[in-house]
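Dear colleague,

As promised, here are the two records you asked about, laid out in our usual form so they can be pasted straight into your sheet.

NAME FIELD: protein one
SEQUENCE, THEN STRUCTURE:
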Amino acid sequence: MKLTIKREPFLAAFGKVAQVVPNRASLEAWAKVRMECGSDGCLIHANGGELAISCKPEGVTVHEPGSCLLPPKEFVAILRESRVDELHIDEKDAKIVITSGRDKFTILAQPDKGEFGKPPAFPRDQLVVLDGSHFADALKAALIAAGDGGKWAYNSVCVSLRGGYIYCVGMDGGIVNRGAVPVSSIIREPLAQWPLLSVRGARQVASIAELGHSLIAADASKFYFEQGAYTLSSALVEGRYRDWVKTVGQVEAAMADSPTCEIPAEEFRRAVRRAKISCGEDTLGIDLSFTVGMLTMAAAGQGGDSEVKLPVSFMDDDISLRLHSERLLAAISLIEDEEVLTIRLKDDKPPVWFSTANGFLSLVMPLETDKPEGRATNA
């Protein structure tokens, strides 16, 4: 196998693919990245069992076809440290010779014996088309509230197709976060029950989706994603997810006549950060007091206290509550600075409702003032 590659596009593609390689591979071959070269170009492929990805990098000229399994860390290091735009790769007898200008590197490869598995194939008979960067934002919003402790259903991101939108939802005991992205087109709705993506799978999809226009699909066992030259499949998390549509609907109904105010997102975030300065390790709560035309945030710790005032469009009876500062900042961290944040709240302490016009929603549970305030574990 012989080929010539353009360093930057190949490094970008190989780096994304190599992220899927597991730290502890159940098969020796899965600790490598498979590279196959033929008349239609070069395909690089990683398989982690539950997660698989392939890519056809740009800027590749194949001189002789072939395939092998590459050690990802060594190969990425050579590409990253190279200072030339074009590199030559020659594979023979399970050895890879990489020529980079005047430099030459030899690394041991593994013969491709067919045990690696096939690259993921996207099901073109059922798919949803959407803006990839917005989908990445929706996944990241959901990941804020998703756990990362195994296959339990809540340690995942729920992806739902409803009313022309793809919703990505994550939840734990203190936060429900929902991101939304409008669908460009649908070729036969893939499933009535949409999938649960593992946290690792959602993170990988988000890192590629932000590159641009994307396709998604699902069947009974896998979630599929395609963006440009990348194709990814992720095994679905088993288990039943809480009915987030019902949960949000119940909260919305309970807050139908509740006090509401609107605040520029960046102003609110900055005010929370200023108030949080006085929080200690064991006192991470911030007291929020809403009065007519004013929001007062207060915090206290062993080193002192803080009081921050922010004019708001609040015109109802006074309401006071306490929120976990780190959870609150994490929940709203991805909202664009220029967006307007809508806050709904009631004095009988249901979740506090934070939303924006683009479909983002976060429900944050207040703290009980008579209980200790621990550091957030997922913020």
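NAME FIELD: protein two
SEQUENCE, THEN STRUCTURE:
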Amino acid sequence: MSTPSLVRGTPVKAEFVTRPNRFVAKCCLEDGSVVDAFMPNPGRLGELLVPGARMILEETSFHANRRTRFTVAAVYRQDMLIGLNTLKANSIVSHLIKHQMVPGLEEIRTVSSEVAHGRSRFDFLVENETGMRFFLEVKSVTLCGNGIAMFPDAVTARGSRHLLELAKLSEPGAKSVVLFLVQGKGQEMFVPDYHTDLDFARIMFQVRNSVKYVPAAIDWDMELKLKDSVDVLNIPWHFISKRLVDTGAYLLTLRIDRCSKINIGALGGLEIRCGYYIYVGSGMSNLSTRIARHLRRRKKLRWHIDYLCDVADRIQAFPVRSPWAIETEIAKEVARLYEPCLPGFGSSDSPLSTHLFFSETNPVTHEAFQSLLQQFRFVRP
């Protein structure tokens, strides 16, 4: 088996432009032309896919079933190269297992791949040195910051189900394995993304004694080939146990396509500009329920933000779970980046004049907004 590479053939350099849907990325080539490239990674990737991000594409031969000539292979975050093609994850792991490159998994060998069992299909059936067999599931990790790797970057009911099933299939001396394939070196620890998917994080913690977790960080050389060193990251379980709470703060981004004047409770009639609004709120009890209410179209208008949600054309929510009240701290940082608007909006118990901010363009595509999210989400023990 040859050393895995990010691309077959000559890599194509490009810059990210936009992502019209989960499976397509518009990229600008070095000659200035903009092309559609197949995105083989269904994750949100918001912190990576910002306009101007340097990308590596793979040029594919024409096929009648393909709509695009290119496939996204990787993206640079600063100087770190992060592979994005999840379709290659299993071949990478197969190589690592065959060459005994993963600390703690040197004694296993692959028996078969893509193995169906019950309602699920697992990536590998493997065998240890005593002949006992067990399942190994692979999860691709691209969400990294502040020395921490996190998974998932979007809610994964399938991932939660896998953990529960693997826990049931474990036997003494043959624990099921979840190998988190972390793209990019420089991380020191792995934490389930309790901000994005609290259920997955809680289940991962719950079955930690029945499933072996291996966060394996890989890296790529200058020729885009897999380096021969693998780092297994620490999992700070005590810290995680204190973070599995449904409390904290959240940011809402709201797109308003039509300028209008609306009545906002006690604030009265206010002019609403077209563009994007960022709202910072708190939920120190049932944060998930609070956010779900904001995203629901039919509800009694109660809080200031309800009136704005009622006329918004699109709403996105970004929870930041914490045992402590951090709403004001986040709002202060948002105020450094965006224009405060509508004095008194959502700030009755805050030292700030408002918790609502305005942007002419979508803040989710701004590197500064993504960095702010990571500042509060990637908390170290």
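A couple of things worth noting about protein two: The chain has a mean pLDDT of 94. The chain is about 20% helix and 35% strand.

Best,
R.
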